[in-house]
Each structure stands twice: as C-alpha cells, then as structure tokens.
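note to self — DONT lose this again. spent like an hour looking for the file last time. sequence + predicted structure for the chain T wanted, 281 res
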Amino acid sequence: MSPIHDQSYRRYQGTRRPPGNGWGTIAWTGIRNLLSKKIFLAFLLVAWIPFIVRTVQIYVVTMYPAVGQAVPVDVTLFKDFIEQQSFFIYLLTLYVGAGLIATDRRANALQIYLSKPLLRIEYIGGKLTILAACLTVITLVPGLLLILMQVMFSGSLDFLRQNLFIIPAVVLASLSRVLVASFAMVALSSLSKSSRYVAILYTGTIFFTEAVFTVLRVITGSTRPAWVSIGANLELVTDVIFRRTPRYETPVSVAALVLVAVVVVSISVLERRVRGVEVVT
C-alpha cells in the first residue's frame, strides 16, 4: 500500500497578481482568438480598402494640384472617410460582438468566470475591449494614418496648421462610433444565449430607428425627429465635430444626449445581466 502524503495547509508559493488586471487577460485571449481566424483577417483587409483609395486620392491631388478641383483634399475628405467606415463597423460589430457574452451564457461559463477572483467590471471591461479594439483598427487607426499620409505627400504641415482641429475631430468621431457600437452590442449580447438572435436584435435596433426617423421626416416635412435614429445622431455629431453645417435640424445637444443615453442604458443592462450565481448553504 502506498503511503498517504500529508495534505495539511501549506503556504502558497506562486506569485500574487494585484486585482483589477483580469480584463487584460480576457481581452488579449479574445483578440488572439480572432487573429487566428482567416475570415476575420480577410474582413480587416477589405475594411482597409477605403483607406487605400483615399491615400491614392491624396497622392494624386498632391502630385497634380489641378485634380484637387474635382476631388479636393480637405476636412470633408476625412469626415467622409469616418462615415464610410460605419458600414464596416456594423458588420464587424455583428461578427465580433454578438457572441461575446451570449456564448458564455450558453456554455454556463459566467459562474466560472465570476467564481474566481475576477471582478464583474473586469469581465465586462475585457469583453468591451475586444470589440472596441477591433473597431478602432478600422476607424481611428486608418483615420490618423490618412492625416499622416497627407503630411508626408505634401511635405509640409500647412494643412495641419490651417486645420488644428482635424486630429481631435478624427479621434472624437471615431471613438463616438466605437463606444456606442461596443456598449450597445455587448449589452444586447448579455440578454440572450444565442449569438444569432443578438445579431438580429442589433440589426433591428439600427434599422428600426432609421425607419422611424424616415417616416417622421415624411410626415412632418422636417429633419428635427433625427434624434430617434442612432445613425442620424452620429452623423449630426460628426458634422459639428468637423465644423461642417449640420445636415439635420435636431440640436446637437439633443443628439449627443441620445448617444450618451444609449451608453448609460447599456451599462445598466450589463450591471443587471452579468452576475455570478449565489450559492446558499
């Protein structure tokens, strides 16, 4: 008979990590998993095609200034680029975000996550970081690189001196889209165990609010009801950020409040839905 070894208390010999860093592990694991998928990498490549097109435009206008009369390189170019990326934001949000929490709920993994020394805010933060990082790669990063391309091709900082707000504008316009999409999708993902249902719910929310705005616009003959559409609010805020004439009559303060409300409601949903299982003894 083999001897029975003493299993009494012994001091933990491993390293102790300070609390609050768990979100990074969740985020990096999720991003690394996405990078291993060829479909995801192919999508990123396609999402960068508008950047390549705009870069060629900047180069041609720089080399041949006369072309600038037809396709000028100005503030509107950068605004249009950010808005054009909204389509890719929508698709990537569906692909990456729909199953972020829904998959864990289907596998009953939430209680495993939250039974460890992992704060709920760390879990949510990690999931948000996965989606936000992916969306940033197709909005903020190429937007800033476009500014760099303009400076490199022109060989001067004149454009930046004349438009000192252009870098903050690109940052704010990009992050507003990233944050609204990320919070909304992760909150919806916490409501169901089916990623397909979450994708349908997100799509329905986007297109339903746009449809309601279209109907109200026809009925009232005014664009003041634009605040009911998430997309229209983002467009209106983007116009103001880039110092362009607002395309809708809705006050920008109302549009900004609606976007903030979307984020706040999403946080409230996450606070209610992402909970560990209490064990009663």
